[in-house]
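Input record (one chain):
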Amino acid sequence: MKNLIKIIVLSNFLISIAYANTNTNTNTNTNTNGIYFGIGGTSSKYKENIVISGTRYTLKYKSTSFKALVGKRLNDNVATELQFTNFTKDAITVDGVVTILDTSGNSFGVAGLYYFNSGEDFLPFVKLGFHSWDFKTTNTSTGVSSELDGTDIFYGIGVDGKINETMKYRVEFEKMDIDGDDMNNFGAVLLINL
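The corresponding structure, as predicted from the sequence alone:
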């Protein structure tokens, strides 16, 4: 609930900034070169193989995550975005067995997007950026926790689709590097052009 409140506050802040920007924006084509923000969800999956005493184990984390972003179209083909992803708390599994370990985390990132011109209603893109992430893992029986953080790259592909003149939807796949392992995110975002 605490993270949902953060996302709502961030969205209201972005709407306020965008509203102020529309009063000073002389560009009449806000769909191409304007500021936009978005909010949505992703299915996040993390997998790590570890070896303990010669035995290989597979650790997995899977959860539904929340995402908020703000972006600026620089021209018809290039955009830049700031994004926040909240990885909700979920149990870690080892070889399919649920453990007593819960993990959750956040990612703040900046990315460049390149759009391929395939039409005004359907815009495929690729993205590349870097993000600062942190995760907290807690033993649910003892309450002992540990934290891990870092800064790594991420990349993705997706498509923006037009709903109307001010709204778009986005479907995307992102692969985030988390300390040498991959976090895969597949999600959908509602985008609002301002």
